[in-house]
């Protein structure tokens, strides 16, 4: 059995690739290790995806994208991909549960939250340290929490956390935020959000549960301790591309390099979404990448038949 298209990853890029490939009548499977939806499932609102009603929860949109791909014929398989091999006419996608022979591959594995890398972080993960506000915010009803980072994720999730927490303190390593202007405006206007600028967390402390953080001001060198119940870390993401290392060309951070048709350094292997080296990582650009990758896979197959 040789599939036409094997898609790895069930976020917006993979699901859109599935929709386009199966709608083009290509025999398509999508391999996903968790529930489909990807990182979007860890956020609540999607303000910047065109045509979405304000009160539409982001995970619901992902459910609809999944259903749409499935309705056109994409088969979703639960497995974790660990390697890839190229045999010219066909490729083999190696999973923990099985091997999948295919004419083309679309890598759409996205990215995952980066760790802060300070003492206490791993020990207190799930015990007050979190990387997902949507998943964990309601544990912090009327409590004080810290958000680390100054990008879109940090500020968006800080605003979301104010629905639950008593106070949200954003600790950022510089004195200006990286997040989009509209998010900055909302955060500065929110009375529940405080900022600690030019500062980094050096340690997360707690006996079985988060109790405080040690903060160092980068400008003055002053070290202080702040009591808190939770630490939400949003300091960027890393691509999920380890299984393809040495197989396709990547940049120094592990983002996969493609041409404008999403084709990687290996013919017939494409990459789409956040895992790709690109300028703008958003749901809309991930979905667009998925559409292009599927159309390019269709063309690749047609030219060889
Ligand atoms: P990001 O844009 O890379 O921001 C990471 C933030 O963490 C930056 O403010 C950075 O500081 C800080 N940081 C990095 N390493 C740190 C460290 N070791 N200690 C302390 N602070 C550290 O990452 P993101 O916010 O997770 O977003 C990832 C991608 O998804 C971005 O492309 C983003 O635009 C996109 N995204 C978009 C939306 C949206 O459009 N609604 C929502 C979420 C995410 P510096 O600023 O000093 O570098």
From TrEMBL:
GO terms for cellular component: cytoplasm. InterPro entries: FAD/NAD-bd_sf, FAD/NAD-binding_dom, Ferredoxin-NADP_redctase_2, Pyr_nucl-diS_OxRdtase_2_AS, Thioredox_Rdtase. This is Thioredoxin reductase. GO terms for molecular function: thioredoxin-disulfide reductase (NADPH) activity. Belongs to the class-II pyridine nucleotide-disulfide oxidoreductase family. Keywords: Disulfide bond, FAD, Flavoprotein, NADP, Oxidoreductase, Redox-active center. Homodimer. Its cofactor is FAD. One of its GO terms (biological process) is removal of superoxide radicals. It catalyses: [thioredoxin]-dithiol + NADP(+) = [thioredoxin]-disulfide + NADPH + H(+). It comes from the Bacteria. Gene3D superfamilies: FAD/NAD(P)-binding domain (3.50.50.60).
């Amino acid at each position: 059995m040789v599939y036409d298209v094997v898609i790895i990853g069930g976020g917006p890029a993979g699901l859109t690739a599935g929709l386009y490939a199966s709608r083009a009548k290509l025999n398509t499977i999508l391999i996903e290790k968790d529930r489909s939806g990807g990182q979007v499932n860890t956020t609540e609102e999607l303000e910047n995806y065109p045509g979405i009603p304000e009160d539409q929860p982001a995970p619901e949109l992902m459910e609809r994208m999944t259903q749409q791909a499935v309705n056109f014929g994409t088969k979703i398989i639960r497995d974790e991909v660990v390697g890839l091999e190229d045999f010219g006419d066909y490729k083999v996608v190696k999973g923990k549960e099985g091997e999948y022979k295919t004419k083309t591959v679309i890598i759409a594995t996205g990215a995952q939250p980066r760790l802060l890398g300070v003492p206490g972080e791993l020990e207190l993960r799930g015990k007050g340290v979190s990387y997902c506000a949507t998943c964990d915010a309601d544990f912090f009803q009327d409590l004080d929490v810290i958000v680390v980072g100054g990008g879109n994720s940090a500020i968006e999730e800080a605003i979301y956390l104010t629905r639950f927490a008593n106070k949200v303190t954003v600790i950022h390593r510089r004195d200006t935020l990286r997040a989009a202007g509209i998010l900055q405006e909302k955060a500065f206007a929110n009375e529940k959000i405080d900022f600690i600028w030019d500062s980094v967390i050096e340690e997360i402390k707690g006996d079985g549960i988060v109790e405080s953080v040690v903060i160092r001001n980068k400008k003055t060198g002053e070290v202080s301790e702040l009591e808190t119940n939770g630490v939400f870390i949003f300091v960027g993401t890393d691509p999920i591309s380890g299984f393809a290392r040495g197989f396709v060309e990547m940049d120094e951070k592990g983002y996969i390099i493609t041409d404008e048709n999403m084709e990687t350094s290996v013919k017939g292997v494409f990459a789409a979404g956040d895992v790709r080296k690109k300028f703008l990582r958003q749901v809309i650009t991930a979905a667009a990448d998925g559409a292009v990758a599927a159309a390019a896979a269709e063309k690749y197959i047609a030219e060889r038949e």
